[in-house]
Structure formats: structure tokens, C-alpha cells
Write a structure and sequence with these properties.
Blueprint (H helix, E strand, L loop, with lengths): L2 E7 L2 H23 L2 E5 L2 H13 L9 E5 L1 E3 L9 H8 L25 H14 L11 E4 L15 H4 L5 E4 L9 E4 L1 H4 L4 E6 L5 H8 L17 E7 L14
Parallel strand pairs: 1-9, 2-3, 2-5, 5-8, 8-9
Antiparallel strand pairs: 4-7, 6-7
């Protein structure tokens, strides 16, 4: 497994700003190295806040040379404001010159997938495979993750079938403990195809789960513990989220 790196910032605003700067630098470096980049976005306050900061300072990102995926999605109709893709477009994607063919949103809960999240999950797995250079899943440059207070990442909640999934890369969730109940999510095996996995987490309510995940708790109990990158796993925290770490790094 990759090394775990912990970076602590004095407050949420600084955390989001610094995470956005790291995101821009990582994407630019990938594009310089290979000509393109591949990232997985997340929702939530920190995830969308990060995108807003990237919009303010996009650096030298070539928006025509980036593939954008999502780690999970609320299975709702197109345009629903609760969908992660809708929020990401408002925060960033509608304001930069992205190639629409390289923005890979998860299926919506109307049209051909209405009332069939399982088919939607299969369809998104096929999308991943189509951009994986002969593999089943791309090697993402960065998979962004937030984390819930009980340790969930994407829509992988503790003690559920989805977090136990070992073979499929995308699954439907029909009984999410956090509304809405129906979702489509990448599994831990898919997350582990990222070169780097970043967990951007703020707030004291998440401190216990942060400490447990970094200490290596079983992923079925703390799903974030199983989110590991091929080269690096980065925990980007504010001081509150880091407050339960036994050897807490000093804020940057």
C-alpha cells in the first residue's frame, strides 16, 4: 500500500485553498508529463469549495486535456440541485473551457435508467472501461474524497454491501443511511486505481473517524480506511479534523 501523508491547516478556509492549489499543480504536472490528466471529483462542502477555489485560480490547467469523473452521485433527475455534477458545474465546470466529451457524469434517474440504478451503475462501469487504455478502470491522477462523520467516502457507508464489494468497480446503493437513499458509487477497488487519493476533511465531528482511518481501522467499519492511492494517500485536514490524531502534525 502507498504511504499515508497527513497535512494539517489552521482552518477550513486555508485547507480548501491549499487543497485547490495542490490540485492545480498536480493536474498541470500530469498534463506536462502525458499530455492529459484524469481526475475524480467529489461533492460536499469541502469538495465543492475546492472547485470554487480552482475557478478563482486555475493556474495553467489545460481544460481541453482533462477527463473528469465522479466518485459517486445521488440518483436523481438531470438538473436536480442535489446532484454532485450540477453543483460541480455551478462551482467550476460551467466557467472553464472543458471538453464536454471528457466530462463523464453518472447517469440520471430519468430517461433510459429511470428506476434502475443497477443498470446505471453498469453503464458507468462501461464508461470507465472505455477510458482505461485496455484496463477496466483508468489510473486516475487524483481521486478527491470527502468523508462523513462515521467515516463514509463516496457512497460507501459502514457495514454495507457496497463497502464490502471486492470485484465490481461501480455499484448501486438503494438504502443509503444519508438521503437520498438511492445512489451510484465507485467502490474501494475503483478508488485504489487512483495514483493519488486525497481525503479533504474538516471539522471536529469527523476527528474520531479520521484518527481511526489513519490508524488502519477495518474498512467495513470505517470506509475511509480503505481509500488508498497507488502512489500516495493524502489526508488534507484542518486542525479540528486532526484533533484526535495521537501525533498530530503542526498546522502548515
Amino acid at each position: 500500500m502507498s504511504d499515508i501523508h497527513v497535512e494539517v491547516h489552521p482552518d477550513t478556509a486555508t485547507l480548501v485553498t491549499k487543497a485547490a492549489e495542490r490540485f492545480v499543480a498536480t493536474v498541470v504536472a500530469a498534463q506536462k508529463d502525458r499530455g492529459s490528466a484524469s481526475v475524480v471529483l467529489t461533492g460536499g462542502g469541502t469538495g465543492i469549495g475546492l472547485l470554487e477555489k480552482v475557478r478563482e485560480n486555475p493556474g495553467d490547467i489545460d481544460w481541453r486535456a482533462i477527463d473528469i469523473f465522479w466518485g459517486d452521485e445521488r440518483f436523481l433527475p438531470a438538473g436536480d440541485p442535489e446532484r454532485n455534477d450540477v453543483q460541480a458545474r455551478a462551482a467550476l465546470l460551467d466557467h472553464v473551457d472543458v471538453d464536454p466529451d471528457r466530462v463523464h457524469t453518472m447517469p440520471v434517474a430519468d430517461g433510459i435508467y429511470e428506476n434502475d440504478p443497477e443498470a446505471a451503475a453498469v453503464a458507468y462501469a462501461q464508461v470507465l472501461g472505455a477510458h482505461a487504455d485496455g484496463r477496466q478502470v483508468p489510473v486516475f491522477d487524483v481521486h478527491l474524497l470527502g468523508m462523513g462523520g462515521e467515516g463514509h467516502v463516496n457512497s460507501l457507508f459502514p457495514d454495507t454491501d457496497a463497502v464490502r464489494e471486492e470485484h465490481r468497480f461501480v455499484v448501486a446503493v438503494t438504502d443509503s443511511p444519508k438521503p437520498p437513499p438511492v445512489r451510484v458509487t465507485l467502490t474501494l477497488p475503483a478508488v485504489r486505481h487512483a495514483d493519488e487519493v486525497w481525503l479533504v476533511v474538516s471539522g471536529d465531528a469527523k476527528a474520531e473517524a479520521v484518527a481511526a482511518a489513519i490508524a488502519g481501522a477495518p474498512p467495513v467499519e470505517i470506509p475511509a480506511s480503505g481509500a488508498r492511492g497507488l502512489s500516495a494517500t493524502r489526508w488534507l485536514l484542518d486542525t479540528s479534523a486532526a484533533s484526535r490524531l495521537p501525533n498530530r502534525p503542526l498546522p502548515n
